[in-house]
Design a protein that fits this description.
single chain, about 250 residues, alpha/beta, Rossmann fold, two-stranded parallel ribbon, 9 helices
Length: about 250
């Protein structure tokens, strides 16, 4: 099998790539940092192909597909993304637009283009990396939470369409809670809850994707939070989320 992983130079993307390598997949790894990609590529069992590309650009996202469409991709992992912290009226608009371009537009483009090929072959897996943030509005991280809700809902809708078409192609959405990655540094926060390791999250994500799970929520605590959150009003959930995010900001 051959897999393409975006945001593959660190965190969940890197650990997913490592695990897929262990499972015998041939890899195409995509990230902005050439040095990081080249350094980590030397640790893989099967030498991966690396593509240095900034997916903030719509043109680059489309170019990535053109560069790899003949590679017979069996697994697409849309992992590239970032977040930001602060009151909506105070956060930088330019950074938020970039977040939307990467978290939503690049993922949307790659999902659509590769999905068309997969459905023609009637085989393949797509793993879209969202977050537990996708399950509710996120005061103090309003744009990030909104982008991840888009990823979750897009994935669910596509999954249902594939089901109605009786397609053998499968799409999953990974929705982890706090994970030990570089995310909090970029977003400008520190997690107030104990984070899972990126390696553990990656193993759960790949295993459940291959078992054709739709929404993947690693960790017992996050599964409980998702379940019991259904019984709270929207305003109550927003109040809880605000308190959690405010605490993150105070810890940084």
């Amino acid at each position: 099998m051959k897999a393409l992983v975006t945001g593959a130079s660190s965190g969940i993307g890197l650990e997913i790539a490592k695990y897929l390598d262990e499972l015998g997949c041939h890899l195409i790894l995509v990230a902005r940092s050439k040095n990081k990609l080249e350094e980590m590529a030397t640790t893989f069992r099967h030498k991966p192909k690396i593509i240095v590309m900034d997916l903030l650009s719509e043109a680059n996202a489309k170019s990535l597909y053109v560069l790899t469409k003949n590679e017979d991709i069996n697994i697409l992992v849309n992992n590239a993304g970032f977040g930001d912290f602060g009151n909506f009226i105070e956060t930088e608009l330019s950074k938020e637009i970039e977040m939307i371009d990467l978290n939503i537009k690049a993922l949307h483009i790659l999902t659509k283009m590769f999905l068309k090929d997969m459905t023609k072959k009637n085989k393949g897996y797509i793993l879209n990396v969202a977050s537990s943030a996708a399950f509710q509005p996120g005061p103090l991280m309003a744009t990030y939470y909104s982008t991840k809700a888009y990823v979750l809902h897009l994935t669910e809708a596509i999954w249902y369409e594939l089901k109605k078409q009786k397609s053998n192609v499968h799409i999953s959405c990974l929705c982890p809670g706090p994970v030990e990655t570089n995310f909090n540094k970029v977003a400008g926060v520190k997690f107030s809850l104990k984070a899972l390791s990126a390696e553990k999250v990656a193993h759960i994500a790949v295993d459940q994707m291959l078992k054709r799970k739709l929404v993947i929520v690693p960790g017992f605590k996050m599964k409980c939070a998702k379940f019991f959150g259904r019984f709270l009003s929207d305003k109550k959930r927003m109040a809880i989320t605000y308190k959690i995010q405010k605490k993150k900001g105070e810890l940084k």
